[in-house]
Amino acid sequence: MKTTRFLPLLALLLALGSCATEAQRADAPHYIDIPDRAALHVWFRYAPERPVVVSGHRGGMMTGYPENCIESFEQTLAMMPSFFEIDPRLTRDSVIVLMHDPTIDRTTTGTGRVADYTFEELQQFFLKDREGNVTPYRIPTLDDCIAWSRGRTILNLDIKDVPLEIMSQFINERHPANVMYTVHNAAQARMLLDRDPEAMFSLWCKNLNEFEAYEKAGIPWSQTMAYVGPMIRSDRQELYDKLHEKGVMCMISVAPTHDLRASEADRIKAYELEIGSGCDVIETDYPYLFRNLDTNRR
Q: Is 94 among the domain residues?
């Protein structure tokens, strides 16, 4: 079993330089072991020599493996390293589960709102993959997902209808080293940071005004990654430079763009262009399509 242990920064970044080679092997899981919060912060430090990192949007998906599903995460890690953006929601009995949509219609054999079911009631339904095929997998709890993820990968929580106070209490009680929050503004980041000074964030930071708002709020750049939009834009180079000066990796998401192309071959061609665009992290519905790509910077 391959793992990346916590190393000094230089050694860690050198180890990460082998990601392109590792991604071509499928003989064992490609786990990322984050033993503590300091290691999580270091893992996301920007370095220009580092290969582009891949993140699974909604946990990634492929035929037979649905989004927001632990079995899908494991299948991706059998092919390549990845961390996963996932979507917490509340059931009627206040269990936090993984589900992107407010309803279960698109992704399960059931219908209706997540919030109208208890967790036990949700377990009667099976998850469906992107093509609508019914799978043997069921809706997981966030608790189960965190327990599974320890020693395996990093989870990025894109919180849906869970109040931030409830989510913060939930995470603080468990204190997982490998979990981070997506936040859409400085106020959200500040509120979570006040409750957990070691919290790690994926910040929405798509322009200089948002950058300055995080600065004024006192959000430590050493505990952040920045989502800068669906693509790298030449008119926003000043923003990227400022983030890199702070040691912050810039993430783009191809979920609303290249992931929608008709064929896997077309998607892969587009991904290759983005690898050379200057981004540091690419978020995609299909992380497995990157497994044989050279993610080293051009």
A: no
